[in-house]
């Protein structure tokens, strides 16, 4: 069994029908309550949310969150230049998030769209986040990143307390070059997300949308290596991520209590060395590129 304190409960499914393999729809309130109660009793106190996750913040606010560490995210900016009125909106939406959550302060606030930090006058965003921190509204500030090629440029502008970043057996970009070293050398907290690739890694091959048929050989190789190591797909996928000491937390979305209990019963740890020609294919590992079709 691994340290369950490292789990961050992902809440995207709690406010919308999120996830390409999600067959349950939006998680109902009573199920959210069961998940939170079980998590708290077993030492898991972190929750990841965002104002873009539909009703997630509002639904979370219907529960007592005083024993939880909440991480939410900023609004996204569409303009190429950051203006004062947008910072006013950022401020308004952040305080709106606090109100919906029923909290006076939270653990973390992340810039939701990493490219916002590269826009003209993005210093306005950074300064606002720093002011939230100085006012004890947030403990840590950071950034949610998809595109690893932006990392150096971002770190030259802004040293976050937290970087939330995708990492899984099919997306091993974090292990390339000196990416982990660059992050850790700056004493940045690493939150690995998408560790099951929205459930793709846990699914039966024939149950996936036809979009993923291009990677049938990769999916079969993954299934084979799990069988060869006498591991379930969940055990193998978790082992791969938590086997990295540099990863401080893992963000996992749970649609129901049963899924959470399965993770808590994880006890077969075995480091997996999985290599295949198709790993790190952005059309596979970046959900923004999926057609999201189920046919």
Task: Give a structural overview.
The protein is an alpha/beta fold and 295 residues long. Helix content is 33%, strand content 14%. It has 10 helices and 8 strands. The protein has helices at residues 29-41, 56-60, 84-101, 123-134, 151-157, 179-184, 216-228, 233-242, 257-264, 282-285; strands at residues 7-10, 46-48, 69-73, 106-111, 138-144, 162-166, 189-193, 249-253. Strands 1-2-3-4-5-6-7-8 form an 8-stranded parallel beta barrel. Strand 6, helix 6 (179-184) and strand 7 form a beta-alpha-beta unit. The model has no long low-confidence stretch (mean pLDDT 91).
Looking at this protein, list some descriptive labels.
alpha/beta, 10 helices, eight-stranded parallel β-barrel, 295 residues
**Share in helix:** 25-40%
> Count the helices. How many?
10
- Give the neighbour order of strands across the main sheet: 1-2-3-4-5-6-7-8
Shape: globular
Largest sheet: 8 strands, parallel, barrel
The run of helices and strands is EHEHEHEHEHEHEHHEHH
Question: What structural category arises from helix and sheet content?
Answer: alpha/beta
What is the typical, i.e. mean, pLDDT? 91
Strand content: 5-15%
Distance between the termini: 37 Å
Short description:
Helix content is 33%, strand content 14%. The chain has 295 residues and is α/β, with parallel strands linked by helices. It has an 8-stranded parallel β-barrel with strand order 1-2-3-4-5-6-7-8.
């Amino acid at each position: 069994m691994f340290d369950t304190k490292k789990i961050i409960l992902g809440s995207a499914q709690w406010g919308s029908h999120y996830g390409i393999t999600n067959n349950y729809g939006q998680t109902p309130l009573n199920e959210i309550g069961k998940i939170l109660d079980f998590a708290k009793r077993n030492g898991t106190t972190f929750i990841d949310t965002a104002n873009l996750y539909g009703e997630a913040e509002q639904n979370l606010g219907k529960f007592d969150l005083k024993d939880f560490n909440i991480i939410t995210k900023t609004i996204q900016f569409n303009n190429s230049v950051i203006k004062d009125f947008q910072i006013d909106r950022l401020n308004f939406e952040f305080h709106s998030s606090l109100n919906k959550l029923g909290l006076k302060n939270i653990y973390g606030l992340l810039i939701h769209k990493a490219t916002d930090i590269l826009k003209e006058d993005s210093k306005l965003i950074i300064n606002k986040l720093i002011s939230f921190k100085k006012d004890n509204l947030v403990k840590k500030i950071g950034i949610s990143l998809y595109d690893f090629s932006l990392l150096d440029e971002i770190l030259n502008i802004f040293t976050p307390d937290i970087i939330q970043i995708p990492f899984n057996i099919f997306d091993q970009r974090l292990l390339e070059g000196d990416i982990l070293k660059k992050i850790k050398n700056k004493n940045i907290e690493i939150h690995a997300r998408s560790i099951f690739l929205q459930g793709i890694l846990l699914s039966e091959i024939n149950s996936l949308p036809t979009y993923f048929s291009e990677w049938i050989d990769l999916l079969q190789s993954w299934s084979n290596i799990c069988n060869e190591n006498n591991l379930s797909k969940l055990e193998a996928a978790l082992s791969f991520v938590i086997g990295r000491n540099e990863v401080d937390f893992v963000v996992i979305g749970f649609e129901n209590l049963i899924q959470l209990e399965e993770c808590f019963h994880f006890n077969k740890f075995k480091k997996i060395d999985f290599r295949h020609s198709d790993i790190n294919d952005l059309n596979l590992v970046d959900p923004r590129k999926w057609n999201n079709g189920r046919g």
